[in-house]
Amino acid sequence: MPKVSVVIPSYNCARYLPAAVDSVRAQSYPDTEIIVVDDGSTDETPAIAERYGRQIVYIRTANRGAAAARNRGIRASNGEYLAFLDADDWWEPTKLAEQVPELEKDETVGLVYTDMRVHYDDGTTLDSLLSTKPLAGCGYIFDQLMQSQFVFPSTTLLRMSCVRKVGPFDESMRSLEDCDFLLRLCYRWKVALVRKPLVHRRERAGNLSSNEGLHTRYIITFHEKALQLPSLNASRFRHFQHRLARAHLRRACYCFRQQQIAECRRNLQSSLKYDWKNLGALRFLLASYLPGGGLQQLSVPRDAR
């Protein structure tokens, strides 16, 4: 039985998949299995996977999104620990070797993450993502993670027993499903950090995270689910309500720009439901009933920028 199962979900990433797989095969920590889940790709992904033969487990599924692909990979995993690697990312050779000891020395830690380098389409590189994330840290980081995204799937190594307990990725979410999953895990377990950029991330223009329509829709779902976490104290509950109000306001502004006025108004009403003192949202809602000329001059509330 391998110690670490590495799940690589891939959708039309044949161009990048070899770099991802080879970076796992080059790990100085050798006790791994590699599971590539092809999420219904229409490019050369099957041919690329075939080249590796028995060096990887290749699973091809219908296109159902990243959450479903990761869940399928989890079900096929045999390791005590679990790592995710997006097909367009790659690892430094010591990534797993530096993470595994963090899980082995403290049974209360459910996840270890690292820093990463970000490579942009224009050729520039951010050498340390965490240098831009002052809230990044270790221990119980739930509250910090709720405010800032600094843990990404490709940087993580997780204890499989914790993954089983926290439940699968939400397959109904086509964006932020990784944030939802990681938040649920960090709500229950401590986190360790290897503060080295051991992961390389390609920030491509076509990345799902750049789709504003999907993002503004599912950030509402993300915060609605956060409100349903068990045993939230009153302070956290109020904080999440405020963030949900802002999420609805952001969605309203997106819908306004798309001239989807009915949905814009519904989200403004929901925003006020969770934060009735937000005068900017109230003025926005009232102004949305102005005639066309006045509506075009409407300014976006400061909270939604």
What labels would you give this structure?
Spore Coat Polysaccharide Biosynthesis Protein SpsA, Chain A; 19% strand; alpha/beta; 9-stranded mixed beta sheet; 305 residues; 12 helices; 2 domains
Domain tally: 2
Q: What is the radius of gyration?
A: 21 Å
What's the oligomerization state?
single chain
Work out the strand percent: 15-25%
Would you identify the CATH architecture of the largest domain? Alpha-Beta Complex
**Helix percent band:** 40-55%
Shape: globular
What is the arithmetic mean of pLDDT?
92
Main beta sheet = 9 strands, mixed
Q: Just give the CATH class of the largest domain.
A: Alpha Beta
- CATH T-level fold name of the largest domain: Spore Coat Polysaccharide Biosynthesis Protein SpsA, Chain A
Topology, number of strands? 9
Summed up, the helix count is 12
Compute the separation of the termini in Å: 50 Å
